Amino acid sequence: MLTNLSILDLAVVKTLDLDLNKGMSVLTGETGAGKSILLTALGLALGDRADSGYVRPDSKRAEVNLEFDLADAAPAREWLRDNELDDGPHCLVRRVVNQDGRSKAYINNRPVTLQALQELSGKLVEIHGQHAHLTLLNADEQRRLLDAFAGNQALLEQLNVCFRQWQQAYKELAALVKASADQTEREELLRYQMDELQQLDMKQFDYAALSEEHDRLANLGKILQTGQGLLDGLYENDALSANGILNRSVSELQQIAHYAQELQGIASLLSEAQIQAEEAALQLRRFLDSQEADPARMTELENQLAIIHALSRKHHVKPEGLPAQLAKLEQELGALTHSSERIEALQDSTAKLLADYQALANQLSQSRRSGGERLQRQISAMIKELGMPQGEFLVTVEDQAGEAPKLHGKDQVCFLVSANPGLPPKPLAKVASGGELSRISLAIQVTTSNDKTTPTMIFDEVDSGIGGGIAEIVGQKLRSLSQNRQALCVTHLPQVAAQAHHHLYVQKNHETDITSSTVRLLTGDERVEEVARMLGGVNITANTLAHAREMLSHADLGVAPVTL
Questions:
Q1: H or E stretch including 412?
Q2: What is the dihedral of CA 106, 107, 110, 116, to 10 degrees?
């Protein structure tokens, strides 16, 4: 439960340190005194969106701290352990909002994300706003309340997992079936393109070697002419060949080398050059002798290269990339060939998942119908107590047979009410009286809260639109609800305030330039005076005070106070 609320520089609250106890606590005060800002502070600390407007004027930041006793919050303790944020039997939650609107959240003095804070908060506090009856008109909210009341969370999660698996398999199956309509035509095209490429004998395909051979044959005349000219210049022209010149040079140097020994080394170099020139000439002659024109081979190469270039243009790849293109086409064809097998497997899978979904949906529908019967009995009994003696509350669970699977099952859940005998039940959205809707909303909130494990519940003026003896019954219901949990109620009704175990009073202070609000615990005569103020307005008479004492006394006698 929430044991302490601490606020610093939040809107009209300069500083506040408020201890809270078990049982039912009410928060009262004049209109505009600042009751709403306390709920704003709680919502902010529990993960609501931050805003720079929350920061009190002339302050750098606003801060809200909550302290919880986890003795009655097993799900919260488990969550803290799982997220390595546990710190003993207590939990500290802190939210800081800066002037620029940025905020930081902490759990047990460790920074956390807003999502983590919201996850933990849902296990510690549940807030029922004053406009809950408007949310109640939504069909999804009605289904959610019924599932929560019937304890369908685990079954619902299992069904939704099954639905998502079915949806994914169904989408893949639909895509494959659609693609298979054009599969035959695509297969024929792929096979034709592959046949074209396979005529190139891809195992032996070497575009670079083919191009080189073609270039040699195409330039054979130039090769022979140039080669023969070089051969003459190197060796075969006795008078002018490089070999003849080198031979004479070596001979002449050797004749004069005995006059200058340094010339011997030069003669050796020229002798080696003569040998190299002679060897080069011999290799060139052999090469030229081996070359011969081959018109047939030339024609074959030209035809083959023409095919290669045409295919490379057709497939928008370089000639060297044709083998990779063939492999790509083979892979696509293989995928198309196996798609029929995949379609068959997906058909089996979707059929099984659909059967599993239908079984879970039927089980969920049965649970909803059973829970709906219990819920409508309890709420019908409560709205009778709340001033609708002829009122009947109904929960319908309609099977949307024939529709495709969807999240949350196949049911359409609808809350209906008949306020007067003889009138057919109508959906809540068509209930004309705002007071009746408020009472029905309160009955639903109280009834569905009985089965919840949330240790702290906050009711923000959920008693609006009612008064008199009905208001006293509302107070009794809220007090009864607080017997096994903590309930904090913001109210303007003295009948509700009198039922509380603890009474907190919000007061606005105008003593400084900036308005501020304070909260204090009322006891004894102070509490009597506040209930009297709520009863009698401006002029509080002795009768009003006596009435207030009587209401407080009856509340204590009606329900035994909680041991604190």
A1: strand 411-418
A2: -80
Q: What is the DSSP letter of 87?
A: B
Q: Which residues contact 235 (CB under 8 A, 6 or more apart)?
A: 241, 242, 243, 277, 278, 281, 282, 285
pTM of the full predicted structure?
Answer: 0.61
Instruction: Write the DSSP assignment of 260-294 as a string of letters.
Output: -THHHHHHHHHHHHHHHHHHHHHHHHHHHHH----
CB 173 within 8 Å of CB 347: yes
Q: Residue 60 has what DSSP assignment?
A: S
The dihedrals phi and psi of 156, each to the nearest 5 degrees, come to: -65, -40
Instruction: Name the packing angle between helices 322-385 and 295-314 (round to 10°).
Output: 10
Instruction: Find all residues with CB under 8 Å of 68, minimum gap 6, and list them.
Output: 1, 2, 3, 76, 90, 91, 92, 93, 124, 455, 456
- Nearest 5°: phi and psi at 85? -125, 5
Buried b / exposed e across 266-281, counting CB within 10 Å, b at 16+?
Answer: ebeebbeebeebbebb
User: Residue 82: helix, strand or coil by DSSP?
Assistant: helix
DSSP 85-133: --BTBEEEEEEEEETTS-EEEEETTEEE-HHHHHHHHTTTEEEE-TTHH
Nearest partner of 44 among 129, 110, 104, judged by Cα: 104
Tokens read off for 237: 């022209």
Among 7, 25, 24, smallest CA distance to 16 is for 7
Task: Evaluate whether 386 touches 470 at the Cβ level (below 8 Å).
Answer: yes
CA–CA dist 394, 137 (Å, integer): 14
Residue showing tokens 């609006």: 464
For the chain (564 residues), the mean pLDDT of every run of 10, in chain order, is: 92 86 89 73 89 86 94 91 92 93 93 93 81 73 89 94 94 82 74 81 77 77 77 72 78 80 83 84 80 77 82 87 84 73 88 94 95 93 84 90 85 88 81 70 77 80 74 86 86 91 85 71 91 83 90 71 34
Give how far the C-alpha of residue 207 lies from the chain's centroid of Cα atoms, to the nearest Å.
52
d(CA 120, CA 157): 19
Q: Which domains can be identified in the chain, with CATH numbers?
A: 1-124+454-564 (3.40.50.300), 185-334 (no CATH)
Helix axes 322-385, 183-198, angle to 10 degrees: 160
Q: How far apart are CA 275 and CA 108, in angstroms?
A: 94
Q: For the chain, give the number of residues.
A: 564
Contact 16, 6 (CB under 8 A): yes
CA angle 230, 233, 236 (to 5 degrees): 105
Q: Is 393 helix (H, G, I), strand (E, B) or coil?
A: strand
Place of tokens 């790509």: 328
Distances in whole angstroms, Cα of residue 41 to Cα of each of 63, 255, 557? 9, 117, 34
Q: Cβ distance 84 to 112 under 8 Å?
A: no
Q: Which two tokens stand for residue 477?
A: 């219901």
d(CA 367, CA 395): 13
